[in-house]
Design a protein that fits this description.
Layout: E1 4-19, E2 22-23, E3 30-31, E4 34-38, E5 46-49, E6 56-59, E7 64-69, E8 71-75, E9 78-82, E10 85-89, E11 96-98, E12 104-108, E13 114-116, E14 119-124, E15 133-152, E16 159-165, E17 172-193, E18 202-205, E19 208-216, E20 222-225, E21 235-241, E22 251-259, E23 264-271, E24 275-279, E25 286-295, E26 305-306, E27 310-311, E28 324-326, E29 334-339, E30 349-358, E31 365-370, E32 374-378, E33 385-394, E34 403-404, E35 408-409, E36 413-418, E37 423-426, E38 431-439, E39 448-454, E40 457-464, E41 469-474, E42 482-492, E43 495-506, E44 520-521, E45 527-528, H1 545-549, E46 552-558, E47 569-572, E48 577-584, E49 591-596, E50 604-612, E51 615-624, E52 629-632, E53 647-654
Parallel strand pairs: 36-43, 37-43
Antiparallel strand pairs: 1-17, 1-19, 2-4, 3-17, 4-16, 5-6, 7-10, 7-14, 8-9, 11-12, 12-15, 13-15, 14-15, 15-16, 15-17, 18-19, 20-21, 21-24, 22-23, 22-25, 25-26, 25-27, 28-29, 29-32, 30-31, 30-33, 33-34, 33-35, 36-38, 38-41, 39-40, 39-42, 42-43, 44-45, 46-53, 47-52, 48-49, 48-53, 49-50, 50-51, ...
Length: 657
């Protein structure tokens, strides 16, 4: 992990650190002699004799170089004087006596002569035009003047700069003086580096002033991938988890990838994006990615953050078979398992592997491998449950996902129906419907639940033993002419259930040519009528009364409180309705609905219009021609005409086909 060192970056300005004016004259703005700002060198350069008769200044730690100019600039944190003149003195130089009465000494600072300021004075030993601070003298004089350095002979000697006109008596105006140093200006940005000594802790360098702020880390904390099992020839997204650096900044990343354990290759340089998409070349065996961070202030990390190495697959496996179907499961019998074909995106499905699981265990055992889409297995009577799953394998040997069936209970045997055939033909006279329910397996079924429905009406429910005969009388004399059905359903624990439908037709009565209906009388002259009188009443389109009555259904049902497409209401009729009316039976409930068949023969039948106490809603209607069932559902129980506990009356009318 690489450490980033951060500085605040500022401009460099000249900062005034002292400002004083000394004057021999009484006026502070004009005079004939100008003593400028105190100059304290702490006797680094000088020594002197303290003598009232003669005061001498001697340079004992020279040389000393004065540089004087009329302007300055700042470079690399130092002052550079413009238009410079220099005056240097070697070690041992004796200063000129001055300050009348011999009470001081002086040195010429510059060979130049000046009539106005500002003048900038720098002092050092090397003579290089580079200074940490300068002395600034401002003035205006009417003749050329000297720039001098004075030292007094007082018990606490003082140094100062002075402007002295060439001829005594000249007037100096606009007098001011100051000391200026290189200092920190306005903040311009930030700087960073991998080295703690790249910039000053608090100082100038180049054209900027730097103030150290601290250190942090910008290396990414993790590199991850959008897919842990990539395919050759497909794209993968490289994801970077950024660090949260203390000092912020714009962080960029350079992305590199490694293919099949080879060298690292750069795929993106200095981007702020925290994700990068890359297409892995086909044939690659492994893939890894790494990133290295940098910021826009100057820092570049030397530490890479590397993601895990992934194994690359270069073949797409087959899909799962579309479905799997398990036949009847009876102990000691054979069961046929079938499945639909799988597909291979980039090759051929070579084979299928069928596996079996018993007793809801954790182990699957392969029982078949081949190209067929079906297999017959023998069911062990000792199994409690059995299930199957199948997968496909392609020509590269890669397998796809499983298609898994639904777990089946192993039955002791199955039930079967013994009785009339499914088509009993015409039955013009009453007859007995005689049947029995048998069972297979080592043990016969001893408790078989049987239900018999005759034309949508339950005519028998009971519990019988295997092969027990049941006789049900069917009276056709009061039955309308046309088709009828009897449906028998039998169930028993541990056995496969059985359902048998037997159909028959009651024929219409046809009178011979010239025949007519008449009133029949008994011996006493009392009229009587055959039980099938209704067949002699002719209605619309030549249909007899029985046929007409066959197209009318009436009934009631009690609401369950459920609703929605998964809980529809339904009614089973012997004809396809063309009009249905439903009315809530409660006198206080103004709820009703009606539906008109707008698409005869179609499963989707539009909507039932429901008025629920003034709120109108639509319920989608479906017709199942095979089950002869009309269904509807709504968004709520009330809207579906299925409010809990409410009794509804229903009338369905059929067409005059």
């Amino acid at each position: 992990m690489a450490t980033r060192y951060v500085w605040g970056k500022y401009g460099i300005d000249a900062v005034t650190t002292a400002s004083q004016t000394y004057d021999d004259d009484s006026s502070s703005t004009s005079g004939t002699y100008f003593k400028a700002i105190d100059f304290d060198l702490n006797d680094v350069y000088w020594s002197w004799n303290y003598d009232w008769s003669q005061f001498v200044i001697v340079l004992t730690n020279g040389p000393i170089v004065f540089t004087v100019g009329t302007s300055y600039s700042i470079s690399n944190g130092k002052f550079v004087i413009g238009n410079p003149t220099t005056q240097s003195y070697p070690n041992g130089t004796t200063g000129e006596q001055g300050l009348g009465g011999g009470h001081g000494a002086r040195l010429n600072v510059s060979s130049g002569r000046y009539t106005s300021g500002p003048l900038y004075i720098g002092i050092n030993k090397s003579g290089q035009n580079q200074f940490d601070y300068l002395y600034k003298l401002g003035f205006t004089v009417n003749q050329n003047s000297y720039v001098l350095l004075y030292k007094t002979d007082s018990s606490t000697p003082e140094y100062w700069f002075a402007i002295e006109p060439y001829s005594y008596g000249s007037v100096i105006t606009n007098r001011n003086s100051s000391r200026i140093e290189v200092g920190k200006g306005s903040l311009t940005g930030s700087a960073s580096n991998a080295s703690a000594s790249a910039y000053p802790q608090d100082g100038g360098s180049g054209s900027n002033w730097y103030t150290y702020q601290g250190s942090d880390n910008i290396d990414a904390t993790a590199v991850g991938y959008s897919n842990q099992s990539p395919m050759g020839g497909q794209s993968i997204t490289i994801n970077v988890t950024p660090a949260t650096p203390t000092y912020g900044g714009t962080i960029q990343y350079t992305y590199q990838v490694q293919l099949s354990g080879g060298s690292w290759t750069t795929i993106a340089t200095k981007t702020t994006a925290t994700s990068q998409q890359y297409t892995i070349p086909a044939g690659t065996t492994s893939f890894a990615a790494r990133v290295v961070a940098n910021d826009t202030w100057g820092f570049s990390s030397s530490t890479y953050t590397t993601g895990s190495t992934l194994t690359v697959t270069n073949n797409q496996p087959p899909t799962a078979p579309g479905s799997i179907s398990i036949g009847s499961v009876v102990g000691g019998q054979q069961c046929t398992i079938t499945w639909t074909a799988a597909t291979d995106p980039d090759g051929t499905v070579a084979s299928y592997q069928l596996e079996r699981q018993t007793d809801n265990g954790d182990t699957w055992t392969q029982i078949y491998s081949g190209s067929n889409l079906t297999y017959t297995d023998t069911i062990n009577a000792d199994w409690a449950t059995v299930n199957y799953r199948v997968k496909a394998t392609d020509d590269d040997g890669d397998s796809g996902p499983y298609a898994t069936g639904t777990m089946q209970t192993v039955n002791d045997g199955w039930l079967y129906f013994s009785g009339p055939p499914s088509d009993m033909g015409e039955q013009p006279a009453p007859f007995n419907f005689v049947f029995s329910i048998g069972s297979t397996g080592a043990t016969s079924a001893s408790s078989i639940a049987v239900t018999v429905i005759y034309d949508d009406e339950v005519i028998y429910t009971g519990t019988v033993t295997s092969a027990q005969q049941i006789t049900l009388p069917i009276d056709t004399r009061l039955t309308y002419a046309g088709d009828h059905d009897i449906i028998v359903t039998a169930t028993a624990s541990g056995f496969l259930a059985v359902t048998q439908q037997c159909d028959f037709t009651v024929p219409s009565v046809t009178l011979p040519n010239g025949g007519a209906a008449g009133i029949m009388e008994d011996d006493a002259g009392k009229p009587y009528y055959p039980a099938t009188l209704a067949r002699f009443v002719i209605g619309l389109k030549g249909l007899d009364a029985n046929a007409l009555f066959d197209r009318v259904y009436t009934g009631t049902y009690t609401g369950t409180g459920t609703s929605g497409s998964g809980n529809p209401c339904s009614v089973r009729t012997s004809f396809e309705p063309i009009l249905v009316f439903i009315q809530a039976a409660a006198a206080s409930t103004a709820t009703s609905g009606y539906w008109v068949n707008s698409a005869p023969g179609q499963s989707s039948q539009g909507n039932m219009i429901v008025n629920n106490n003034g709120t109108v809603s639509l319920c989608p209607v479906t017709w199942d021609a095979e089950a002869m069932t009309l269904s509807w559902y709504g968004t709520s129980a009330a809207a579906q005409l299925n409010a809990s506990g409410t009794v509804y009356g229903i009338i369905a009318l059929g067409g005059m086909a």
